[in-house]
UniProtKB/TrEMBL annotation, chains A, B:
Presence of the UniProt keyword Nuclease in the record: no
UniProt-listed CDD domains: AspRS_core, EcAspRS_like_N
HAMAP family documented for this protein: Asp_tRNA_synth_type1 (MF_00044)
Positions of ATP binding: 220-222, 229, 479, 531-534
Keyword Transit peptide on entry: no
Primary localization class, coarse: cytoplasm
Gene3D superfamilies: Bira Bifunctional Protein, Domain 2, GAD-like domain, Nucleic acid-binding proteins
Catalytic activity: tRNA(Asp) + L-aspartate + ATP = L-aspartyl-tRNA(Asp) + AMP + diphosphate
An example Gene Ontology CC term for this record: cytoplasm
Keyword terms, alphabetized: Aminoacyl-tRNA synthetase, ATP-binding, Cytoplasm, Ligase, Nucleotide-binding, Protein biosynthesis
Record protein name field: Aspartate--tRNA ligase
Length: 584, 584
């Protein structure tokens, strides 16, 4: 038996007990006649004490030899600590060691195993197994485990069945690029790894499974960037005999359950916002509503003056920055520089200060008088002391720019408090999205999403106007989940594929199995998928997902530690080549 | 709202309520003036009634049009049934329909959606979404979900953390062949899919995670055969600061928890058996101990007579078949034919009848007298009325043959009752196994398994004799789990790799990351993995795993329904070729 207690367990009530502990040496203080060692495990830290008077000489020597991260087992007596440490749970006691065994030695770690470490990102990633010993990472992984389990409890209680769908599947294009897996048994053929279990969960609904969920890895062979991993985890759900309202209710319940169980936060009924309103008011389909700063459209209020920039703009839009009149000229110039960065792409920014006395001072006083500016303030909701920032240009572009500015200023103003949770449903998404490069429409959610009742006919004439039974769950400016009511009849699905540019033959080859299934009694159904990585990070109050993934990949897709992928040996390469050759 | 109740919910207490139900038409009986329809969903079946007197004519016509597996929604009043059906939970009531909507039509299904279906295996697999509507498959999937959840509950309660390990990893050979995944971002390089998260869970232990579990898909690119899928699910666990005893206790507890929660069966403390004893007494490292028929070794009792077959045999072994004296000569000839089948491979079988009066009649009376045969009976435990079956030959072969015969006869005698659960720990497995073809030793469990204390030295002289800290959990003759205490220091691990035929360079390239980790304070650790597919099948009282997998693959690795894998298109093939070309 390696231990009778964990290192986080001993209290004053254990005084005089003999205990056995195992763990890592966090640090030791050697005063010569006395040595204190902090022993750490997953559960906490306990102070060990060795002293000349009570510890045999040989053991004193051994204790002196203990380096950081040595793995040791000790037996000893719990005694009261002279100087108590109120900062740790075991701070009332220490263990006077009577037996010390070094279970394993350790090289000096390349960074300190402490909450605030001296190790940079790269070195911490390379030695991820050491990084995981640090509380911030360890606690994040434990937090993720708790979130997963609470998801399972909630959904199981609601009658959902956890069904595993296959990982080696037929490629069914869903927007991103598939990872492929050559099949040795079927030369020249390949499996794909699922981008999501979408078609399988729909087949489960055709199969009468009624309520399905799975916490499942999904794969996209896309270029990596910050916070996007080639493999990611999805909470995948589907229900039969449901309308949008049923789904919103269940998954609002799930989100509320998580906020309560893991964050101890109670949240009111989630507000709902039309996609069109989200774009109009926040320039964004995943608005952060922890703070205001809603867009005010200023076209009417700015036209017919001599300011050509606004007159020629498709959209003139402003936001009120609370307390922004306090910005110096230099600070405002900085903001203007910020919006002109290539990543944001605005050509410039007009602003109007709202003085405490209610007068205005703008960067375009030449064109707009006090009355005009009062209207700007009214439309954007600016109050005395605020600053109105105005951008103009093509609607889509200027909305994106203003949305970026809004988020940036809110960040600077401390309005994005990770301890505040503001969930939001965004509903009535467009069915199709125009790819401006190709001029083709593609499915905004995915090709299985149903149009709103009665809008199917619009597909021929105004495809961009067709709304879908599609919804996103947004939390603090992040899309944490999204879903739709699906098409469940073959004819509608065929029409959709046609509009997405599939020939009849292509649709049949790629999705024939699903359309065939629709002919054997497919029930109305719909679902939702949460991105677990991001959900956990947001609930955990973090900006990035990396601490919540035990072994993340770096930006070149390599495992942080093992530096995968590995090059295959020649035999394997030759076999693969052979398989390909047969096909060509 | 598609339904107020499920089809399994209505009882006499609902009489006179107005309800809305949705589901599939199981069947309908049309008596002209009256139509009964059985409406089915995941939860049960409810009888609907339409009759000339109370149902509008138009609706009668619509009801007449309903075919099997049509998806319908009805609203109506719950009424008492005239002829109650005690066989179903809703059998006291029926619903007099006032509103009928056909939500989706259905083509005639290719087999009947009933517990005993008329569809053969192939057709049921092709239309798996229809097969899943049948109770045996549906209930199996629900059963699996329950088992998974109970595993999670037990382990979470015990402090285990669910940590997701990566699926796109570096290839680390573990016996079977890896599936590989070309990386688009790293041309010429490939990920492998994990055969198990073995190295990752060990790194988590080095990382101080202490208790880890995961229910995780694993992949082996092996030839398929019955009940072996290229992707399978593992309950994967690892603990730090543990000895074998700690692990057996936790996972015996898990198994007992499952038997109680999902089978309502209480089981005593699991017996433990040495590997050597299992081989000697059952010829098998996963003995089915629901019944006796233990092997009796008869070498001493059969030598020095004139029967050359036994004299020259390395092993002469017998079992007592309870009541086997009742077999006719023809039946015994049939058994002899059975053991001579190429799949079993015995050259013949000697037998001795134990008559009710205690006398014997054997097939080798020429060589062995009554006294000799009495010894056979004593050693095999045969009683009057039994039959002693004896095989002889090379020890390994004859044990395998006798084990097969024992299982076959037990099956015929009805001794393998799927409702009886006889778990067993088999412990002290050999560390290494001799590959008789190549003459090389390989790791019996895996290269990370630790030898028993003090046996490391034996590796040089008697490698086959070294025992490992390795254990299997056996249930009803199936290995449902296996694990070991791992090596946790670099030196021992290096010695192991050397004995397994790795050069120092190979060991470093393939497992360097793990051995490096061992230098930074690796705790003693060990673990166990359960094969979920088989565990669920055995708990569910089934011989095969197929009903417990939603979308199994057939023997050529193709998805039963979607007929994956698919051939990639030319662009994808060309890119892959290019990647390979760069490497060559």
């Amino acid at each position: 038996m390696y231990r009778s207690h964990s290192c986080g367990e001993l209290r004053a009530s254990h005084i005089n007990n003999e205990v056995t502990l195992s763990g890592w040496v966090q640090k030791s203080r050697d005063k010569g006649f006395m040595i204190w060692v902090d022993l750490r495990d997953r559960y906490g830290i306990t102070q060990l004490i060795f002293d000349e008077e009570r510890t045999p000489k040989e053991m004193m020597e051994k204790a002196k030899s203990l380096g950081r991260e040595f793995v040791v087992q000790v037996t000893g007596t719990v005694i009261e600590r002279e100087s108590k440490n109120a900062k740790i749970a075991t701070g009332d006691v220490e263990v006077l060691v009577s037996k010390l065994e070094i279970l394993n030695q350790a090289k000096l770690p390349p960074f300190t195993i402490e909450d605030e470490t001296d190790g940079g990102e790269d070195i911490r990633m390379k030695y991820r197994y050491l990084d995981i010993r640090r509380n911030p990472v360890k606690d994040s992984l434990i937090f993720r485990s708790k979130v997963s389990m609470e998801v399972r409890k909630y959904l199981t209680d609601k009658g959902f069945i956890d069904v595993e769908t296959p990982y080696l599947i037929k490629s069914t294009p869903e927007g991103a690029r598939d990872f492929v897996v050559p099949s040795r048994m079927n030369s020249g053929q390949f499996y794909a790894l699922p981008q999501s279990p979408q078609t399988f969960k729909q087949l489960l609904m055709v199969g009468g499974m009624d309520k399905y969920f799975q916490i499942v890895k999904c794969f996209r062979d896309e270029d990596l960037r910050a916070d996007r991993q080639p493999e990611f985890t999805q909470i995948d759900c589907e229900m039969a005999f449901v309308e949008q309202e049923d789904i919103l209710e269940i998954f609002e319940g799930l989100t509320r359950h998580l906020l309560k169980e893991v964050n101890n936060v109670e949240v009111d009924k989630f507000p709902r916002m039309l996609y069109d309103d989200a774009m109009r008011l926040y320039g964004n389909d995943k608005p952060d509503i922890r703070f205001g700063m809603e867009f005010g459209e200023l076209n009417a209020a700015t036209q017919h003056k001599d300011f050509g920039v606004f007159n020629s703009a498709e959209l003139v839009v402003g936001i009120a920055v609370p307390g922004g009149n306090a910005y110096t000229r230099k600070e405002i110039d900085n903001i203007i520089k910020w919006v002109k960065r290539p990543q944001v792409g605005a050509l410039g920014m007009i602003y109007a200060r709202v003085n405490e006395d209610g007068t205005f001072k703008s960067s375009v006083d030449k064109f707009y008088d006090q009355e005009d500016l009062a209207k700007w303030a009214e439309i954007t909701g600016a109050k005395p002391g605020d600053l109105v920032c105005v951008l103009s240009g093509d609607t889509n572009k200027v909305r994106a720019q203003m949305s970026a500015l809004r988020m940036e200023l809110a960040e600077r103003l401390g309005l994005r408090d990770p301890k505040v949770f503001a969930p939001l449903w965004v509903i009535d998404f467009p069915l199709l999205e125009l790819d401006e490069e190709t001029g083709h429409y593609h499915a905004m959610h995915h090709p299985f999403t149903s149009p709103k009742p009665g809008q199917l006919e619009l597909l021929d004439t105004n495809p961009g106007d067709v709304k879908a039974n599609a919804y996103d769950l947004v939390l603090n400016g992040n899309e944490i989940g999204g879903g739709s009511i699906r098409i469940h009849d073959k004819e509608t699905q065929a029409i959709m594929f046609k509009h997405l540019g599939f020939t009849e033959q292509e649709a049949k080859e790629q999705f024939g199995f699903l359309m065939d299934a629709f002919e054997y009694g497919a029930p109305p159904h719909g679902g939702l998928a949460f991105g677990l990585d991001r959900l956990v990070a947001i609930l955990g109050g973090q900006e990035t997902i990396r601490d919540f993934i035990a072994f993340p990949k770096n930006n070149s897709g390599r495992d942080v530690m093992i530096d995968a992928p590995a090059v295959l040996d020649n035999t394997q390469l030759k076999e693969l080549s052979l398989q390909l050759a047969i096909e060509e």
